């Protein structure tokens, strides 16, 4: 199916992706609300293997304390996760150079996700794209709606900026990023649904895939983000980690709603 955005540019409607996210702290998978009050959710290697077998389309691994604690993503853990899965694997957390990315790709990551480092030095996006290609580079954008305006936040949503979400998304695309992972800090961990209005606006603005993150609580939330939010993929954590939603069941329900998924 082909759709046209408001600029008349054709976007091809591809199969929608379901992506479990493993937030990692001290080598364990954790989950909280708005990145605080974290609780243990299991061994990341075991969870990754289970999700691959259950039909996940991709996997995202985020070392949520790497940037804050000024340390690098755990490359050894990345290696062990990659050894146990056969689906695309994106890694983020504390990535700030071409060298960081080279190590992660060498250890089995298919893509990398950059966030705070890209905001602080946007040229990093260009450098990584030039070296590794757009298909490897995901820019994660954490944003919060403040007084009706979506503003980019850094360090897991703890540090506000005056950067507009939509202006930053356009710049990210111009600099060559292959995808945007958008997390609404207002919705993260709340299980009240994704930020579909903002997602739809992002989808209209840019022509690279948008991954929706923050707010998944039930099957309908996934249906809504694909239909109303125009998201290309939906990422979730706790609903998968704690078996509140099974991935195969979720995909079956999405297919019944006419949403193209890989079963």
Question: Keywords, please?
Answer:
263 residues, alpha/beta, TIM Barrel, eight-stranded parallel β-barrel, two-stranded antiparallel ribbon, 10 helices
Largest sheet: 8 strands, parallel, barrel
For this structure, what is the CATH class?
Answer: Alpha Beta
Mean pLDDT: 88
Q: In angstroms, what separates the terminal alpha carbons?
A: 19 Å
Q: Count the domains.
A: 1
H/E topology pattern: EEEEEHEHEHEHHEEEHEHEHEHH
Backbone structural class: alpha/beta
Number of strands: 14
CATH superfamily (homologous) name: Aldolase class I
Oligomer: single chain
Largest sheet strand order: 3-6-7-8-9-12-13-14
The CATH topology is TIM Barrel
Report the uncertain regions: 32-37
Explain what this protein looks like in three dimensions.
By secondary structure, this protein is α/β, with parallel strands linked by helices. The chain has 10 helices and 14 strands. It has a single domain, classed as Aldolase class I (TIM Barrel), CATH 3.20.20.70. It is globular.
